[in-house]
Design a protein that fits this description.
- The structure is a single chain.
- The chain contains 2 helices and 4 strands; from the N terminus they run βαβαββ.
- The chain is globular.
- The N terminus is likely disordered.
- By secondary structure, the chain is an alpha+beta fold.
- The two termini are about 30 Å apart.
- Strands 1-2-4-3 form a 4-stranded mixed β-sheet, with helices on one face.
- It has a single domain, classed as Ribosomal Protein S8, Chain: A, domain 1, CATH 3.30.1370.
Length: about 110
């Protein structure tokens, strides 16, 4: 008898996130929301067209912005609704933590 939950077995190995490409907004100066969205769309589409699936997007935490964080929350909103994004999350501390996103594209 097969176990219908076998894919959730503790013996299944977790595939580590290994970014294949990086978009870095950090220390780029003042960017408009138009520029942020344009660069993100180009990056995601180029990555998808080159069969890349694991991406790192560095936004910074927004500590140097006089108005508070702008890039990070806006990029988060864009990733949430982008048609090429299968999933995303805050990056692990070794990759920027709260100042970056780990993104997986659709297949």
């Amino acid at each position: 008898m097969s176990n219908k939950y076998a894919k959730y077995s503790k013996t299944q190995k977790h595939t580590p996130f290994l970014p294949e490409a990086t978009l870095d907004y950090h220390d780029r100066g003042t960017l408009s929301t138009y520029d942020i969205e344009r660069e993100l769309n180009i990056f995601l589409e180029d990555s998808y067209n080159h069969d890349l699936s694991q991406l790192l997007i560095i936004t910074g935490k927004g500590h140097n912005s006089p108005q508070g964080p702008i890039v990070r929350p806006f990029v988060g909103q864009l990733l949430k609704k982008h048609y090429l994004v299968a999933k995303y999350k805050q990056a692990d501390d070794s990759r920027g933590g709260a100042g970056a996103f780990e993104v997986t594209l659709i297949e």
